[in-house]
Amino acid sequence: xxxxxxxxxxxxxxxxxxxxxxxxxxxxPEERPIGIWGQRHLRxxxxxxxxxxxxxxxxxxxxxxxxxxxKQAEEMYSLLVKQMNSIKILPKFRC
Length: 95
Prior knowledge:
Blueprint: E1 4-6, E2 13-17, E3 20-23, H1 36-48, H2 50-59, H3 62-87
């Protein structure tokens, strides 16, 4: 039996493991760190959107989704801070 085979119709590569052919690929999906914004959204999903949380978790897309959301939120926060610093709001004092 061949160790590796490729399906001509789908292009998927299979590896012989024991008596079975399994799809070749990474054993673990790429883990990216999740910051504070991703953690807060995870808590929101668990509390208020349980179906969405379960679907992302079972499809193996939860970490990727949260990491992307965290990156986008961090960029938006940095932009907001830069904009607020450039406006230079001075308090008005009355004497």
